[in-house]
Amino acid sequence: MAELISSLKEQIIEQLNLEDLTPEDIDEKDPLFGDGLGLDSIDALELIVLLEREYGIKVENPADGKKIFYSIETMADFIEKNRKK
Amino acid sequence: MYINQYVCISPDKVTINNESSIINEEKSDFRVFTKQIYRSYALQYPKFFKMDEHSRLGFLAASLLLGPEPELENENTAMVMMNAESTLFTDSQYKESISGIPSPALFVYTLPNIVMGEIAIKYKFKGENIFLVEPAFEAQKLYDHTSLIFDTTPTQSCIAGWVNVESTKNYLAVLYLVERIANSQKCITFDPTNIEKTFQS
């Protein structure tokens, strides 16, 4: 799980062009949206793309997004249970 | 009306009121040079890094033009911009991304007026705006559209000019601040001849 969280941080920084951040700056329990990393709706779409491209996971129900993308930790948990690659 | 300030960003240098500010001595590519400008001016706006080349260029030019705390009336600040390439450079990147999984972050930048949206969000401008796509720079047309906005609305200030990205080696932004009142000794009269001069800077 720790390895997944680490690579997820790097992928998110790269995919979302968070050039001012390093993986160490991101706490896996912090919220990704709002007061945490401050991501926006376009970033949310990019995260969906990231899940599909890197882990072969399609988020079928948009309503699940709020829980899946709450934090790096919740994302990693979801990936571990659903990954196809 | 007066052009109180103007900024030019090209692959070679940044000039403010025709005076060199930053020289791209190492001939860095677009991403590196624009990041250098961003850092040099200590800009604090993480969303900058998410922007496509067109918005990055226009946003940077506007940031240098306005400085850290512009004293403009948000409701009455307009924007009039022009270019020749629209967002073809970004459109091409988006087209390439379609072969895999299309990128939403690229897609949102496939319109030339998005750069004005980015500037408006940063500075909370709510005035009139228009982005013109023309075969080449046309000072008279920029003058006509800007004058019309000043003549028909309560606009007090207008950020206007050229923001064009053909490639990461060939790009140019020339933005100037037009205001009803002259506010610096370096100001020049707002007319097509002087707009042309800013473009030649």
Secondary structure topology:
The complex is a heterodimer of chains A (85) and B (201).
Chain A: H1 2-15, H2 41-55, H3 65-68, H4 72-82
Chain B: E1 2-9, E2 13-16, E3 19-23, H1 30-40, H2 53-66, E4 77-83, H3 88-98, H4 104-107, H5 114-123, E5 129-133, H6 139-152, E6 157-165, E7 171-179, E8 188-189, H7 192-200
Parallel strand pairs in B: 4-5, 4-6
Antiparallel strand pairs in B: 1-2, 1-7, 1-8, 2-3, 6-7
Helix pairs in contact in B: 1-2, 2-5, 6-7
Any overview of this molecule?
The complex is a heterodimer of chains A (85) and B (201). Chain A is mainly α. Chain A has one domain (2-82): ACP-like (Non-ribosomal Peptide Synthetase Peptidyl Carrier Protein, Chain A, Orthogonal Bundle). In chain A, 52% of the residues lie in helices and 0% in strands. Chain A has four helices and no strands. In chain A, helix 1 packs across helix 4. The longest helix of chain A has 15 residues, at 41-55. Chain A is globular and about 30 Å long. The relative contact order of chain A is 0.20. In chain B, 39% of the residues are buried. Chain B has 201 residues and is α+β, with helices and mostly antiparallel strands. Chain B is 36% helix and 24% strand. In chain B, strands 1, 2, 3, 4, 5, 6, 7 and 8 form an eight-stranded mixed beta sheet that branches. In chain B, strand 1 and strand 2 (13-16) form a beta hairpin. Chain B starts with a strand and ends with a helix. Chain B has seven helices and eight strands; from the N terminus they run E-E-E-H-H-E-H-H-H-E-H-E-E-E-H. Classes of the chains: A mainly alpha (85), B alpha+beta (201). The interface between A and B is small, with 13 and 10 residues.
